[in-house]
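User: Hey, my collaborator sent me this sequence without any context and asked if I could get a structure. I don't really work with proteins. Can you help?
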Amino acid sequence: MSAPPPKKSHGALVFAMVVVGLFFIGLMGLLFYGVKQSGRGDRDALPSPLIGKPAPAFDLPSLHEPDKRITPADLAGQPYVMNVWGSWCPECRVEHPVLTKFALTKRVRFIGYNLKDEREDALRWLEQFGNPYMLVIADMEGRTAIDWGIYGAPETFLVDGKGIIRWKHVGAIDDAIIANQLIPALEKVEAER
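Assistant: No problem. I've predicted the 3D structure and written it out in structure-token form, which is a compact way to encode the shape of the chain:
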């Protein structure tokens, strides 16, 4: 007759249950934090290291007049909103009517920044959906976009008359973003003139 096997300690089982319980509590905490953060109006905002700094230099062609080059000196003196878009961008179609309505107020110069697009596609897109821009610059290769910290399209910047980037939004613009973010930023720029 052999002796019965020794009873295993319940300590290991209790320890494992405590670890699993703590992991579950931590996971629930992260989930709660994420849900709470999703209610923030700026949850899509990506911080830009360029806010408060001079806009990067560029020398890009005009979409409508490819032989004409545009530089920051051409835009200096008055604030402008620069909207990054592309004919390939579905969200750009979503925001376009909102941007067009805002551009029609003529409150601020509205500059288009066409990103990684074929010229013919971009021109056809503007013809189809309307052109709210006073000027469209074309960055077909996207090299200048890197200097601006552009992740993709759509993105929108507010640059003051001295060429300082004052505001940036990543993603489609809607009426609430214009009313609650862009216009207050623009009013601050206007008050400082």
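In plain terms: Residues 90 and 167 are 23 Å apart (CA to CA). You can pass these tokens on to your collaborator as they are.
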